[in-house]
Amino acid sequence: xxxxxxxxxxxxxxxxxxxxxxxxxxxxxxxxxxxxxxxxxxxxxxxxxxxxxxxxxxxxxxxxxxxxxxxxxxxxxxxxxxxxxxxxxxxxxxxxxxxxxxxxxxxxxxxxxxxxxxxxxxxxxxxxxxxxxxxxxxxxxxxxxxxxxxxxxxxxxxxxxxxxxxxxxxxxxxxxxxxxxxxxxxxxxxxxxxxxxxxxxxxxxxxxxxxxxxxxxxxxxxxxxxxxxxxxxxxxxxxxxxxxxxxxxxxxxxxxxxxxxxxxxxxxxxxxxxxxxxxxxxxxxxxxxxxxxxxxxxxxxxxxxxxxxxxxxxxxxxxxxxxxxxxxxxxxxxxxxxxxxxxxxxxxxxxxxxxxxxxxxxxxxxxxxxxxxxxxxxxxxxxxxxxxxxxxxxxxxxxxxxxxxxxxxxxxxxxxxxxxxxxxxxxxxxxxxxxxxxxxxxxxxxxxxxxxxxxxxxxxxxxxxxxxxxxxxxxxxxxxxxxxxxxxxxxxxxxxxxxxxxxxxxxxxxxxxxxxxxxxx
Length: 521
Ligand code: BG6
Description:
Strand content: 15-25%
Helix content: 25-40%
Number of helices: 17
Shape: globular
Number of strands: 17
Radius of gyration: 24 Å
Bound molecules: 6-O-phosphono-beta-D-glucopyranose
């Protein structure tokens, strides 16, 4: 069954809600990217900005100042970024020369050493010139697209140069990439550095999963419909499965990944955010603090992980050689910059309990890994079995529970699985799916990228889809016992899986002992 969009319109006088309903263009501003020659700038930031420009959502005069150590100049920066955009298939700049020229006219480059105060003063002077040339009004977004070890240096450098304030009455904001710390203590310390220079309202900690269209749709599904809420609780839901599977390996980031591992790379941020959105109570409105307050409550309700319990509720594993799309691929330990006896996990599966009124007794199973069978992320909410089966013992054995599945990527959409009668004179049944897919309902082949959404929101001063200080710290607290146990465990309890599979047998056993199993994706 297909779901078709129903259209309608309503005028809204509440400025917050009215603002949400329109596409808005931010105030003229400059984005300053630290780490301008790096991969994130090439692959995500500049293509997303160009994408916003093509949609008419960049303010007139918008400028980008790239800062890095390499001895590039404005011309080289423009050339490199043009090539980067062209490499990103399908971005409009590749085909829209006029759009690119307009965007490129606002690109500036500053060669700078992040440790030298003098270079922040040069940056301040350049920003003043950009304001004068392009009318950007002293409004600034600083983007930290550098290795996390440089965050404090840059934040303090900005502070000493007085750049935490916009110029001439303008505003200043800072976007901080993940990983935000590597454990609770380092995240708290980083928050302190940030707060010694910027106010919380200026600080945008990015988690790109929150910018995904399908993730935002989870809020719409839950809070713009009546039919779900009465059953969205322990009385009707048996358990929740959150899977974020990737088929790629560590994609040339061995050095980073050795330090991070899957818990820091995926769970502390993306998977816990998804859990929060499934489990949170309805916020009073869509304002940043209202939404974030509810997410923090979920994180605080997660049952603390007892070290002695870890073997019963968590699995960590590493991929070994296998195949991807029919081609052999190396094991994790054979990857560049990875220690030959590394015990860094590339896969984890966890069972978390949310001890609150709504979710008491409902397990949330989370799994994520590199080099799994395919890229596939979904949230599956599995309902309880019906209380009484009218159709005899055989039917009981055949019947499967209702499942609401939110497909985050690819094939974005939502489906509801339910039992239907098989046509014929016997009373047999079979599960069927009622399916909504973005492609067929909205005729959309490509959804806006998460970075486009988040960059635009930051320029608009909307922080709902960014994580707050207490939220980041609460997420680290949830994982702290697991991180310290696993960091110190070495080979003990580390499982292995062949690249190209759904993970180790131990992850299956985690659910089997609760009488459940992972969904086959
Ligand atoms: C990043 C991780 O945050 O998310 C990567 O550092 C991972 O390791 C990526 O590959 C996954 O993002 P997406 O949007 O491709 O699911």
